[in-house]
Design goal:
single chain, mainly alpha, about 45% helix
């Protein structure tokens, strides 16, 4: 989502997730997340690229202060895991392909 839409409850939670039944994850545009509380409570599931605003420590603190519910966090976890399972990321042991970063090809047994 771009331009602040990643913190828009009407678009993300009310329409996309509730009315339309979207079961996937909502991912921010790069560096477009500005508020931990607003993003978390209004439907964003993953912040890109690094999770500075949506950082685990900030989310944990907000939950402990009652500003974000555990139910909200659980919904995000459920959505993220669902997509990972559907993509087969838990089916086999894999080695991360970092060749694009290192310029070196990974040798496999196949």
């Amino acid at each position: 989502m771009d331009g602040g839409a990643g913190e828009n409850k009407v678009l993300l939670t009310d329409m996309l997730k509730n009315d339309w039944g979207f079961k996937g994850v909502v991912v921010s545009d790069w560096v477009s997340t500005h508020s931990t509380l607003s993003a978390a409570n209004n439907g964003l599931d993953i912040e890109m690229p690094e999770g500075d605003v949506f950082a685990p420590a900030k989310l944990k603190q907000a939950v402990s202060e009652g500003k974000i519910s555990e139910q909200t966090i659980n919904d995000k976890i459920r959505r993220i895991l669902r997509v990972k399972f559907l993509a087969g990321l838990f089916d086999t042991k894999t080695v991360a392909d970092t060749s694009v970063l290192t310029g070196m090809l990974i040798k496999t047994g196949s």
